[in-house]
Amino acid sequence: MKKITLVVFIIGVLMASLAYVAQLCGWKDLQAFMTIGFAGYVLVISAAAYYLTSILYEWSKETEAWRG
After folding, report:
1. pTM score, whole prediction
2. Measured by CB atoms within 10 angstroms of the end CB, which terminus of the chain is less buried, N or C?
């Protein structure tokens, strides 16, 4: 699952970068590229949230093993 999260994160970064380049260059369909960029930001935030949640879950398992 972490591999999928990494792929989603990279795709999100690429989508957001595409929107940034479209804005800088003033491409014709700027609104469509900004929508793609927003979706990219959502993917990046979702992937980061999943990864951080899985890290916290693993850390909580380690403290339970310590206790007993």
Report:
1. 0.81
2. C
Q: What is the 3-state secondary structure (H, E, C) of 2-61?
A: HHHHHHHHHHHHHHHHHHHHHHHHCCCCHHHHHHHHHHHHHHHHHHHHHHHHHHHHHHHH
Contact 14, 26 (CB under 8 A): no
Separation CA 62–CA 48 (nearest Å): 21
Q: Are residues 33 and 22 in contact, defined by beta-carbon separation less than 8 angstroms?
A: yes
Number of structural domains in the chain: 1
Dump pLDDT digits (tens) for 22-47.
999 988 999 999 999 999 999 999 99
